[in-house]
């Protein structure tokens, strides 16, 4: 299959630059249409989506369900206790059964292999709504938000501060497709997956830095980006991580060091007073709520692309 004819949306780097750029352009177009109050564009009329959640969610659940509905379709929420994918029933069976009922599947899971298996056995498109490894829909929404506030992602300096987690992996995979300067500033021992860093660097598309020197990292940033120190599935490590991440809180002093042009972004949910201060989240450079809103618009464009509209 050609790169642009993939069935599923699992990793940003599965797609070429033109496809990702076009999805982002489409997101802006359909956003403008929906914001204008227009409710007659209903390409998903008669279509249904199954949404599998093995983990909690506010943004992913509500933005997918609302977006699919606003474009004419019906979305079905399946929570952690409903189908119990991999426990009550094998993933490959879930994939084939749901493909018989639904036009598209979105799933949030723990092990990345689960989303790969789901996509392999489903005959309908599968969208990755976060795994322990990555979170592509989030970084598509983040790119859209950066385009809206700065004009473009190309050439900007995005400095992620914190754990080298699923969000970082998706930023690295975005950096394999669109050229910008990505810096991950994390404590020693919390660096992102080495193979993913290498994969992104080997494309030669973006400048990529992984550093333990936070103060140096944020200088000249266009965006300072933060996420929780303990992701879903790591909550029992929260106390230990709070110790290990001392000095990596995004506070007003750090934002001053970054400079006047730096926006603050966070995928949310945020733990104020832990990875970021309340003052930064509520501050004049924070764009966390437009960022959250853009989840719906980015995902609408992803679904339109996968369903052939
Ligand atoms: N950012 C994000 O994915 O939020 P939820 O966990 O609430 O879906
Ligand atoms: N890294 C976080 C992102 C939440 C949207 C987690 O996986 O819990």
Automatic annotation (TrEMBL):
GO MF term set: amino acid binding; ornithine carbamoyltransferase activity
GO cellular component, one term: chloroplast
Domain Aspartate/ornithine carbamoyltransferase Asp/Orn-binding positions: 154-306
Subcellular location, principal: plastid
Annotated GO biological process: citrulline biosynthetic process; L-arginine biosynthetic process via ornithine
Family the UniProt entry places it in: Belongs to the aspartate/ornithine carbamoyltransferase superfamily. OTCase family.
Protein name per Swiss-Prot or TrEMBL: ornithine carbamoyltransferase
Source organism of this protein record: Protea cynaroides
Lineage of the organism: Eukaryota, Viridiplantae, Streptophyta, Embryophyta, Tracheophyta
